[in-house]
Amino acid sequence: MEKMEIIEGLLYIAGDAGLSEEQLIMHVPITKAHLEKVVGEYSRPNLTIQRHGDRYFLQTTPEMEKYIQRILDDRPSQKLSQASLEVLSIIAYNQPVSRGDIEMMRGVASDGPVSTLLGKGLIAKKNMHDERAAHFVTTGHFLQLFGLESLEALPTQKEILEQEEMDLFFESIEEEK
Protein backbone atom coordinates (compact mmCIF):
# COMPACT_ATOMS: atom_id res chain seq x y z
CA MET A 1 0.00 0.00 0.00
CA GLU A 2 1.33 3.45 -0.92
CA LYS A 3 2.07 5.92 1.88
CA MET A 4 -0.38 8.42 0.37
CA GLU A 5 -3.16 5.83 0.54
CA ILE A 6 -2.36 5.24 4.21
CA ILE A 7 -2.36 9.00 4.91
CA GLU A 8 -5.66 9.40 3.08
CA GLY A 9 -7.26 6.55 5.05
CA LEU A 10 -6.01 7.83 8.39
CA LEU A 11 -7.23 11.37 7.66
CA TYR A 12 -10.59 10.00 6.56
CA ILE A 13 -11.01 8.13 9.86
CA ALA A 14 -9.78 11.15 11.87
CA GLY A 15 -12.61 13.25 10.42
CA ASP A 16 -13.00 16.80 11.73
CA ALA A 17 -10.32 16.28 14.36
CA GLY A 18 -7.64 15.72 11.72
CA LEU A 19 -4.21 14.36 12.60
CA SER A 20 -1.08 16.15 13.71
CA GLU A 21 2.05 16.06 11.65
CA GLU A 22 3.65 14.10 14.49
CA GLN A 23 0.90 11.45 14.41
CA LEU A 24 1.22 10.99 10.66
CA ILE A 25 5.02 10.75 10.83
CA MET A 26 4.79 8.19 13.62
CA HIS A 27 2.01 6.00 12.21
CA VAL A 28 2.67 5.96 8.48
CA PRO A 29 5.90 6.02 8.95
CA ILE A 30 7.17 8.88 6.82
CA THR A 31 9.65 11.74 7.12
CA LYS A 32 8.48 15.32 7.50
CA ALA A 33 9.91 16.25 4.10
CA HIS A 34 8.29 13.26 2.38
CA LEU A 35 4.96 14.00 4.11
CA GLU A 36 5.00 17.57 2.82
CA LYS A 37 5.90 16.32 -0.68
CA VAL A 38 3.15 13.70 -0.94
CA VAL A 39 0.53 16.03 0.52
CA GLY A 40 1.58 18.74 -1.94
CA GLU A 41 1.17 16.26 -4.81
CA TYR A 42 -2.15 14.85 -3.54
CA SER A 43 -4.70 14.84 -6.32
CA ARG A 44 -8.08 13.15 -6.04
CA PRO A 45 -11.35 14.25 -7.62
CA ASN A 46 -13.36 16.26 -5.10
CA LEU A 47 -10.89 15.76 -2.20
CA THR A 48 -8.00 17.83 -0.86
CA ILE A 49 -5.68 17.62 2.10
CA GLN A 50 -5.49 20.89 4.03
CA ARG A 51 -3.07 21.87 6.76
CA HIS A 52 -4.19 24.02 9.69
CA GLY A 53 -1.32 24.74 12.05
CA ASP A 54 0.36 21.37 12.62
CA ARG A 55 -2.77 19.34 11.79
CA TYR A 56 -3.81 17.78 8.49
CA PHE A 57 -7.42 17.33 7.36
CA LEU A 58 -9.02 15.49 4.46
CA GLN A 59 -11.61 17.84 2.98
CA THR A 60 -13.92 18.01 0.02
CA THR A 61 -13.40 20.58 -2.73
CA PRO A 62 -15.63 23.64 -3.18
CA GLU A 63 -17.24 21.93 -6.21
CA MET A 64 -18.74 19.35 -3.84
CA GLU A 65 -20.29 22.01 -1.60
CA LYS A 66 -23.74 22.09 -3.18
CA TYR A 67 -24.11 18.31 -2.88
CA ILE A 68 -22.86 18.22 0.69
CA GLN A 69 -25.08 21.16 1.63
CA ARG A 70 -28.16 19.21 0.52
CA ILE A 71 -27.30 16.42 2.94
CA LEU A 72 -26.51 18.85 5.74
CA ASP A 73 -29.77 20.73 5.20
CA ASP A 74 -31.67 17.48 5.76
CA ARG A 75 -30.04 16.94 9.18
CA PRO A 76 -31.41 18.48 12.36
CA SER A 77 -29.61 21.58 13.64
CA GLN A 78 -26.80 21.06 16.13
CA LYS A 79 -26.37 24.64 17.30
CA LEU A 80 -24.83 25.37 20.66
CA SER A 81 -27.06 26.87 23.35
CA GLN A 82 -26.31 30.30 24.80
CA ALA A 83 -25.08 28.60 27.98
CA SER A 84 -22.71 26.36 26.01
CA LEU A 85 -21.35 29.36 24.09
CA GLU A 86 -20.77 31.20 27.39
CA VAL A 87 -18.88 28.24 28.85
CA LEU A 88 -16.89 27.80 25.64
CA SER A 89 -15.82 31.45 25.65
CA ILE A 90 -14.83 31.25 29.33
CA ILE A 91 -12.68 28.21 28.61
CA ALA A 92 -11.18 29.69 25.43
CA TYR A 93 -10.09 32.91 27.15
CA ASN A 94 -9.09 31.46 30.56
CA GLN A 95 -7.75 27.97 29.85
CA PRO A 96 -6.92 25.82 31.61
CA VAL A 97 -9.95 26.49 33.82
CA SER A 98 -11.74 24.31 36.36
CA ARG A 99 -15.48 23.67 36.49
CA GLY A 100 -15.62 25.61 39.78
CA ASP A 101 -13.99 28.62 38.11
CA ILE A 102 -16.46 28.42 35.22
CA GLU A 103 -19.40 28.31 37.61
CA MET A 104 -17.99 31.19 39.64
CA MET A 105 -17.71 33.34 36.50
CA ARG A 106 -21.18 32.42 35.24
CA GLY A 107 -22.90 32.34 38.61
CA VAL A 108 -24.74 29.12 37.78
CA ALA A 109 -24.03 25.39 37.52
CA SER A 110 -22.45 24.47 34.20
CA ASP A 111 -22.57 20.66 34.14
CA GLY A 112 -24.86 20.49 31.10
CA PRO A 113 -22.91 22.89 28.87
CA VAL A 114 -19.57 21.31 29.85
CA SER A 115 -20.93 17.85 28.97
CA THR A 116 -22.24 19.14 25.64
CA LEU A 117 -18.90 20.73 24.76
CA LEU A 118 -16.98 17.59 25.76
CA GLY A 119 -19.35 15.47 23.66
CA LYS A 120 -18.85 17.68 20.61
CA GLY A 121 -15.07 17.55 21.02
CA LEU A 122 -14.73 21.31 21.45
CA ILE A 123 -13.10 21.04 24.87
CA ALA A 124 -11.04 18.41 26.67
CA LYS A 125 -10.13 17.65 30.27
CA LYS A 126 -6.62 18.46 31.40
CA ASN A 127 -5.25 17.23 34.70
CA MET A 128 -3.08 19.76 36.51
CA HIS A 129 -0.27 18.83 38.87
CA ASP A 130 -1.04 19.45 42.54
CA GLU A 131 -4.75 20.07 41.88
CA ARG A 132 -7.57 17.61 42.36
CA ALA A 133 -10.06 19.33 40.09
CA ALA A 134 -9.95 18.60 36.38
CA HIS A 135 -9.41 21.62 34.19
CA PHE A 136 -10.71 22.24 30.69
CA VAL A 137 -9.00 23.46 27.54
CA THR A 138 -10.20 23.98 23.98
CA THR A 139 -9.25 21.44 21.31
CA GLY A 140 -7.90 21.59 17.79
CA HIS A 141 -11.45 20.89 16.63
CA PHE A 142 -12.52 24.14 18.33
CA LEU A 143 -9.84 26.05 16.40
CA GLN A 144 -10.82 24.44 13.11
CA LEU A 145 -14.54 24.95 13.63
CA PHE A 146 -14.08 28.64 14.40
CA GLY A 147 -11.50 29.14 11.64
CA LEU A 148 -8.65 30.01 14.01
CA GLU A 149 -4.98 29.20 13.49
CA SER A 150 -4.29 29.50 17.21
CA LEU A 151 -5.76 30.91 20.42
CA GLU A 152 -3.87 34.15 19.78
CA ALA A 153 -6.30 34.73 16.89
CA LEU A 154 -9.24 35.08 19.31
CA PRO A 155 -10.59 38.63 19.32
CA THR A 156 -9.38 40.83 22.16
CA GLN A 157 -11.75 42.52 24.59
CA LYS A 158 -11.08 45.82 22.82
CA GLU A 159 -12.03 44.33 19.43
CA ILE A 160 -15.21 42.85 20.90
CA LEU A 161 -16.23 46.20 22.43
CA GLU A 162 -15.54 48.01 19.16
CA GLN A 163 -17.68 45.48 17.27
CA GLU A 164 -20.51 45.83 19.81
CA GLU A 165 -20.40 49.62 19.44
CA MET A 166 -20.57 49.32 15.64
CA ASP A 167 -23.48 46.89 15.91
CA LEU A 168 -25.36 49.28 18.20
CA PHE A 169 -24.68 52.19 15.84
CA PHE A 170 -26.02 50.34 12.81
CA GLU A 171 -29.02 49.07 14.78
CA SER A 172 -29.91 52.65 15.74
CA ILE A 173 -29.69 53.69 12.08
CA GLU A 174 -32.00 50.83 11.08
CA GLU A 175 -34.50 51.83 13.78
CA GLU A 176 -34.58 55.42 12.48
CA LYS A 177 -35.59 54.28 8.98
Which percent band covers the strand fraction? 5-15%
The count of helical stretches stands at: 9
Average predicted confidence as pLDDT: 89
**Strand/helix succession:** HEHHEEHHEHHEEHH
Structural class: alpha+beta
Uncertain residue ranges:
none
Q: What summary fits the major beta sheet?
A: 3 strands, antiparallel
Radius of gyration: 20 Å
- Spatial strand order of the main sheet: 1-3-2
Shape: globular
Helix content: 40-55%
Tally the beta strands: 6
Give the N-terminus to C-terminus distance in angstroms. Answer: 66 Å
Can you describe this structure?
- The structure is a single chain.
- The protein is of the alpha+beta class and 177 residues long.
- Helix content is 53%, strand content 14%.
- The chain is built from 9 helices and 6 strands.
- The strands form 2 sheets. Strands 1-3-2 form a 3-stranded antiparallel beta sheet. A 3-stranded antiparallel beta sheet has the order 4-6-5.
- α5 crosses α7.
- The longest helix is centred in the C-terminal third of the chain and has 20 residues.
- 17% of the residues are buried.
- The model has no long low-confidence stretch (mean pLDDT 89).
Architecture blueprint of SSEs:
Elements: H1 3-14, E1 19-20, H2 21-27, H3 32-40, E2 47-52, E3 55-60, H4 65-74, H5 82-94, E4 97-98, H6 99-106, H7 111-119, E5 123-126, E6 135-138, H8 140-145, H9 157-176
Antiparallel strand pairs: 1-3, 2-3, 4-6, 5-6
